[in-house]
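STAS domain-containing protein structure dump, as promised
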Amino acid sequence: MSDQEVSNNDIDQDITVVSEFIPKAHSFQSFVDHYGADETHLTRTDYIKHYFQKHCGSFSFLCCLNAILERIPLIRCLKDYKIRQNLYGDIMAGIIVAIMHIPQGMAYGVLTTLPPVHGLYVSFYPVVVYMIFGTCPHLSIGTFAVISLMVAQAIEGILSSPMHVINNGNETFSNESIPSLIDEKIRISTTLALLVGLIQVLLFFLRLGFLSVYLTEPFISGFTSGSAVHVLTSQLPLMFGVKSPRGIQGPFKIPKFYIKLVHIVLRRINWVSSAIGLTSVVLLYFAKYLNERFKAKIRIVLPLELVLIIIGTVLSHFTHLHEDFGISIVGEIKRGLPPPALPTFDHVNQLIVPAITIAAVSFSISISMAKMFSRKHGYKVSSNQELLAYGMANVLSSFFQCYPNAGSLSRSVVQEGSGGKTLLIGGFSSIVLASVIVALTPLFRSLPMTCLAAIIIVNLKGLIFQIKDLIFYFRISLLECILWTMTFVSVVLFDVDIGLYVGICTSFVINTVRTQKPRFVTLGQVDTTGIYKNIVYFPLAHQYDRIKILRFDESLYACNSVFFKRKFYELIGIQNIQSPIIPYGKSKDTHARESPYKCVILDCSPFNYIDTVGVKLLVDIFHDLNKRGIVFFLSECRFEVRQKFDVMKFYEKIDFHKIYVTTHDAVEAARDSLNHELLNSSAVFVPVTHS
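structure tokens r here:
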């Protein structure tokens, strides 16, 4: 026997030994036949019938009644209420939050360019409605700086007047000063509240509460931080006791505003108003700092803003600040609750876009806080039920001269930390606020406007300090950093509504980029296990000769199909490069490179779904690789993907036995295929010797 024959016999013997130790991989069809259940393919008509039979087949009067009562969470709260455990904490929390509502309501009411009492209305009526329909006991509904600013801009857009507070250095802010203009603003704000509520109720009926996930945390942080800059800017003229610069429109409104404000302040600053305002800011900020630092020992949140209002009112009344020093004051405030009145529909066409914007922003801010508290305390918050609660709060309160409302983080944190546990916190808070509105509002006539401006500025601390989030997002994700920056810069340099649209578009583009160009990685086997990992992060993972294992970390659909095809061929070493028209240098040797692999395995486990374009692409790749002598395997296809394969008749166009349950099964099948190919090639090329 020649040396060549001995060598060939050794090869055959080695291949036989290897084959004995490689288990026979079963295709997906054999797995389904043995373990799977029969799949019933329902037509669209049968699916609709099945859905209605499942959800509507047990209709009865009690079933309908329970469904309605479940939409009123207050009933379940009263049914399960534990007086000894919850009553004292709810009463204390209600009183403390009501005390916060009074100064914040008046201050944010002024921010909307409405009389301060309307901020108190928003602190009362929506709280009562949310207590009935809401699901988060720790969320404080009412006035909020960003929403108040957006309401002011909506009113400004209708009246074509500056968005700043109606005030004059020598005038009192009162309902009698310009009654027709104020009445028109009230009508606009109530119509806006009604539209916002109707939009949110419509979203509830369409069950679109999940849309809040698209307004991501970086977007909300950048948007609220930029809006806080606008709010701060609008309060500075009140702090210095000067008129607000007028006629500033278009891009770069904030820089233009500050240039004009500096000129006005240098010429007409009211030193008394400035001293009162700056002193109020410093004392309130320092007192809040001490309150936060020692709240564990004090256990009661001190009503610092209310104390400031009382001191400012008393000081202004007895020292005649308005008459002697020209300091703007609140003026006469209507006593009592307003009678119900139907909002007008005069400006619906002009208000529909601001209403959609405010509805989206208020819902996103409120639901994010509600879910934060629900995770912390372990109760359930329903996005759709919260939509109903916010919508009903806006719709019903619009009949009582209220503008749109939202949740406030500062009040909600106090409400949570004050010991309240149930929805009845809002009820006790409303009792205190109703008493103030009915009996005590005239006492605030002499309150300096600069004190309200100081309250707004200090409460903006949390929103303005969110600018630090930019550093956090830069460390975590460059794309999230870009989203925050684009939103913040566009809000500050242009306007709140433009910043909102820019932020949403940027968020959409970023999400699209993430799905269009996801990771496409090469996998290797970890030791002798059936685990396959990315070779970049697991460099010791073993790769087999002439076998390429790939994983596309995203669903395959039309938007990323081009990237998938280009990257797929690049990873398996196939590059069809056209030679230049005029050859030069190394370009003369340019030619289409063929793949060094004989088997390619695609791990489909990240595919949550696949569309028709993705299925056709896999078919084209299968046929193209088949022409090149490369076997294409699929593994770990989900049920939704396989269902799409069935509909598209995928299995009729490719070899069904090339689909495997696990990636390890596909690898074993590929190794078995290569061994058979090696055996066949050895049998063909063994030379025949003659004796």
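Residues 12 and 679 are 7 Å apart (CA to CA).
lmk if u need the other ones
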